[in-house]
Amino acid sequence: MIYIIRGGGVLKAEESYVDIKNSTFSNSFSRDRGGIFFIDNCPSLDIDSIEVRNTTSTSSGYVIYINQDTEHNVEKSIIQNVYHVGSGNKNIKSVFEEGFIACVDNYATLSINNYYGQDFYGKNLSGGTFVVKHLATLYLNNIELDNIYGIGVNTLSLFLTVYFISENGPKIYIENCQVSNMENASEKPAAILIWQEKSEIHIKNIISQADGSLDINNFVVDNYFSLNVVPFIYSFSASHNSGFRSLTYSTIEITSSRFENMYFNNGLISDFENNFATYNIYSSVFSNINGVNGGILNIKTDDVISNRIAFIHSIFTNNSASNYGGIVYSTNPNISRTIFFIECTFINNTASIGSISYSLNKLSEPFFSNKNSIMKENSFATNPSYIKFTNDSLTSISVYSGEEFPGKIACSIFDDYDNIINIPDNNLNDLSTLKLENFVFFSLYQNGTNNGQIVGLANCYYWNNECSISNIKRTYKVFSKNSINIEVEIKNCNETGFINKDLYNFNIKSW
Questions:
Q1: How many domains does the chain have?
Q2: Which among 349, 383, 417 is the end of a domain?
Q3: For a 10 Å CB count at each end of the chain, is N or C smaller?
């Protein structure tokens, strides 16, 4: 076992040319930065064809910490062809850990190519597998990672964590990357892919922060688990602090990537800002992403949408929402010209209502270029739009004063697609599933109160897809055509041989 107290468990190099090839490093440990390598202001770094087993640092960079104090040109800074099993040690106590593989600091540049890593464990993890600070640059190409576990009070992310102090940010480029089996046991919310502080993000094969950038192409995320509901990308600024977001006039482009086996309470993309940002997602696959409302997109009523979001030639398969909108959930009236699905494929997506899309109404849903070909039963749904009598309902009534109606008056609620509204998650046989927000309450009333009085139950709730009296009102999110009328004739009593009485103490005669 190699044990170093002050930086670089195997090698600490300053202002040197470093060339390492065909080597194996086992059981290295450092109480400072760099579990194996501490590289400081070196003009050239070339590490090729190495094997790493069980490396640990109680600070930054379990394999390598690299720093460059000034913006001088570096001849080469590359690590490639690496097989790495084991980062982190459950028996070593530390208060701060970051970077299962690398920490790139200040003006440093590092390229990592053809890197396979597995079985990473962080007991007090703060930053992810790769940590980039200040004005550094990181290139990742052909990266495959498996079985990453992080636990701590505040594990920010398990893949990439970016910190800033200056106005400008680092540059990060990622191509051909696959990450599988991640588990985040942080006590606080974190991010799956990226955590960035005080930054503006652009992803167009580039994600940039202010002047920083990150290039993502052909990225795969598979089987992610967290104790907390987390965003895919977390970006923090003074104005917001959660979600897959971009700041003012930024562009996010993702190409040929896969997003699989995730759970989001409010969708993969949510919490929109009024910031004129653009999301373009090309030829990507979204599979087995699950949520409550909207597996992929969740757009709230009060979101001011100036963003443009386009999915082009992408595939959505086996995604689900337990309530509304397997792919898209929106109660916002202003998204029809901002959200686009261009020639996308939808396979076996499910939701209680709207397996593909649930929107406020037809005019307020995203644009689907191939809507006619993907339209199936329950694939598109909207908020309640209108009500009408059921086939077995009375539609006119003629009774004497004080006489009960001769049958039931019943109506059902429909959406813009003429789907009957089915309220999910309310089961009278299981009180634990009852949700007040899923009830639609209604009331029966008369036009004028001086010449009549209703006796009996006049207020109730929508159940088993119908209302059992003639006039309903939502108590929240009222839809426009929310009432119907029924003609009721009160016939004159035959006063020959009969005496009029006030049976119900309403000062209205009855018989």
A1: 2
A2: 383
A3: N
